[in-house]
Amino acid sequence: MTAGYGSTQTAQEKSSLTTGYGSTSTAGYESSLIAGYGSTQTAGYKSTLTAGYGSTQTAEHGSSLTAGYGSTATAGQDSSLIAGYGSSLTSGIRSFLTAGYGSTLIAGLRSVLIAGYGSSLTSGIRSTLTAGYGSNQIASYGSSLIAGHESIQVAGHKSMLIAGKGSSQTAGFRSTLIAGAGSVQLAGDRSRLIAGADSNQTAGDRSKLLAGNNSYLTAGDRSKLTGGHD
């Protein structure tokens, strides 16, 4: 199906839809949807959705979504989402999300999230989060977080956090935290913290802390602390 400006499309299984400006598309099983500016797309199982500026996308299990500026994408399990500037992405289990500037990503278990400048990432168990400058990251059990400058990271048990200059890190049990200069780190029991100059570290029992110059280290019982000058 191919439609023009402001059109509305509804298709059955295995269909292909191409729409113009401000259109609305609804497709069934294994369909492919391509929409223009300000469009709204809803697809069934194993769908592929590509939308333009300001569009809204909702897909079922195993779907792939590519959206433009200011769009909102919601996908089910095993899906892949790529969105542009200022977009919002919400996905289910085992999803892959890539977002641009100022975007917000929320993913389920075993997800991979990659976001740009100023973005906010929230993920489930065993996730991997990579964010740019000034981003916020919150991850659950067993996750891995990599963030840029001035970022904030909060992770659950058995997680690994790597942050840039001026970042703040908070991790749970058995975590590993690596931060740049001027960062602040808080970790639970059996954690390992490595920080740069002027950093502040606080760890629980059986922790290991390595810090650079002018750093401040506070640890619990059975900890090992190695600090820099002053």
From TrEMBL:
A GO cellular component annotation in the UniProt record: cell outer membrane
SUPFAM superfamilies: Phage fibre proteins
Main location, first listed in the record: membrane
Top-level taxon of the source organism: Bacteria
InterPro entries: Ice_nucleatn (IPR000258)
Job of this protein: Ice nucleation proteins enable bacteria to nucleate crystallization in supercooled water.
UniProt protein name: Ice nucleation protein
Source species: Pseudomonas amygdali pv. eriobotryae
